[in-house]
Every structure is written in C-alpha cells, then in structure tokens.
Amino acid sequence: MVAAISVRELDKTYASGFTALKSIQLEIRHGEIFALLGPNGAGKTTLISIICGLVKPSGGQVLVDSHDIITQYRQARAAIGLVPQEITLDSFATVWQAVSYSRGLFGQPANPAYLEKVLRNLSLWDKRDKKIVTLSGGMKRRVLIAKALAHEPRILFLDEPTAGVDVALRKDMWELVRRLRNDGVTIILTTHYIEEAEEMADRIGVIRHGELLLVEEKQTLMHRLGKKQLRLQLAEPLAQLPPALASHGLQLSEDGLTLTHTYDKREAPDVPGLLQAVHEAGLRYQDIHTQQSSLEDIFVHLIQETA
Ligand SMILES: Nc1ncnc2c1ncn2[C@@H]1O[C@H](COP(=O)(O)OP(=O)(O)O)[C@@H](O)[C@H]1O
Ligand SMILES: [Mg+2]
C-alpha cells in the first residue's frame, strides 16, 4: 500500500546556515494518528512546513499520496489540511466567509452541507456569521481547524493544536481528531504535551536537534521502554536498607519511608518473595501500590539519554 506521506533523506539548512533537519526518513500510513514529539526547536514545524510546501527542502524528497511535493505540488497540497502553530486569520471576514474562501482556494466546488457539518463538529455553527476578530482565542483555533478541513483533505496536520488551549477545548479537539480518524483521515500532530500523544496516537516519532530518534507503535514503545514500580510505604522510617532486601532489588527512599522495586514490564516480579523478605526483616508496611511509567517518563528519559 502506498504511504500517505513518504519522507526520504530530507535535509533542511536555513539561509542562516542553521541545519534544522538531518536526513529524515519517515513513512506515514493511511488512516493513522501519528504524533511527532520533540522539545522546542527540534524541527517539528520545519518538517511540517516542508511537507505542506511552505518551506523549501535543502535535499531529499517528500511524496504525499505518491505525489512529489515539488514537481506535483498542486496534487500533493490538495490532499493536505494544515492547522498551523500560529494563529493566522483574516480578522474581518466572518467564520463562514473564511471557510468558504479556504475551500475555494483549492478549486473545490461549493458544498454548503459539508461546511455546515465541519462547523457543527467544531461547535462553530452558531458563530458562522460572526467576524473572526470578535471571537475568543479558543474559537479562533477552531476556525483554523475548520479552514484546514474546508477542502476535504485526506491528511490533516495539526501543529501544536492545544498549546495554550483550555482543558475543554483540548478535550473537544481530541474528540474531533478521533472522529476524523474514524472517517479515514490520516492525522499527524506535533505536541510537546506528551499526555496528548499518549491519549491519541497510534504511532510516535521522537525528534531532537533535527534528527528522528525513533518511530514506533505507541504500545510497543511504552512496553519496551516503560518500567513498573512496586512501592511499599513503611509504617516507621528505616535508617538503612538491610542487605537481604537490597539483594531482592529493593531501594530505600531518602526519608526512609518507602521501599521501591523497579522492574521491566515484561518480567513479573516475585511479589510474595519480596513481601516475605520484608516481613522477615521485621518491617511493617502501611500501603503497597504499583505504578507504571507514562509516555512522559519515557520521553524525558529518551531526550536526556541522547543529550
Ligand atoms: N526561518 C528560519 N531561519 C533560521 N532558522 C530557523 C527558521 N525557522 C526555524 N529555525 C530554527 O530551526 C529550528 C527548528 O525550528 P522549528 O522547526 O520551529 O522547531 P519546533 O517546531 O520543533 O519547535 C529552531 O532552532 C529554529 O530556531
Ligand atoms: Mg513548532
């Protein structure tokens, strides 16, 4: 099957001489939600801007639905909707005018029923005759999404869609993205809210200093790099960890109140053995719980490791 997007050996050096992307290789599958994670300045917006034809690559090739973004720009661009990181809107147009205009830019015939559906899905229908300048920041962001969807693209890019957005709008956006995916739209989002990727993505790419560090199924990534911890809350503080417990792989917190056993998710810990050893050391515990590393923990670890 042809990839929705195929990025081959892509390089970008800006006129300033700064190299923002180094030899990026990436295939986005049809119908997936792909989250591109990376710290500020990693190159996320540069990569998206090149795929969408806003920034010129220095080397390499990008195909959108097998159309080359340079030699077949129109076909490639028509397949894509872009919700940019920065709000760029014509303030004095109404919401309806803005989305109709965006549709027209791509040479699509008018389709009021489709635009109505888009606006309704974004809770913008009531605001369709309002001038954009009168809308709140959150509403403007919804308009950006409506504009990006106006020409019925099969691929949607969301560049930091929820940066500075309130919780309600963030949840609405997640809902919308799921609905679009169910309609078969391929979604690529960048974010530095890892929680967002954990919630939504099928696959994750991590980019840092212009290099793609890894691309993996979210589940595999969390399984491969995730750790689990078993914690015992002691009834009384312990000055030193008894050697018998250390040999069971337990660690003592600085305040002497918590014993922790960290283990790989793939191996099941010997919980009865651990508890037996704790018991034999004459210790009493008040509470016991296990905890699993989040995608955030994994990401922070990964970024530090390659610093
Ligand atoms: N027009 C430009 N000229 C020179 N450097 C740029 C330009 N645009 C972005 N950069 C630099 O390229 C790097 C990547 O930027 P960007 O792609 O916006 O990162 P991200 O979206 O991951 O935060 C940053 O160091 C940024 O300063
Ligand atoms: Mg960016």
From TrEMBL:
Domain ABC transporter positions: 5-234
Family annotation (SMART domains): AAA
Record keywords: ATP-binding, Cell membrane, Membrane, Nucleotide-binding, Transport
Keyword Zinc: no
One protein family per Pfam: ABC_tran
Signal is among the record's keywords: no
A GO molecular-function descriptor: ATP binding
PANTHER family: ABC TRANSPORTER ATP-BINDING PROTEIN (PTHR42711:SF10)
Protein name: ABC transporter ATP-binding protein
Organism the protein comes from: Mesopusillimonas faecipullorum
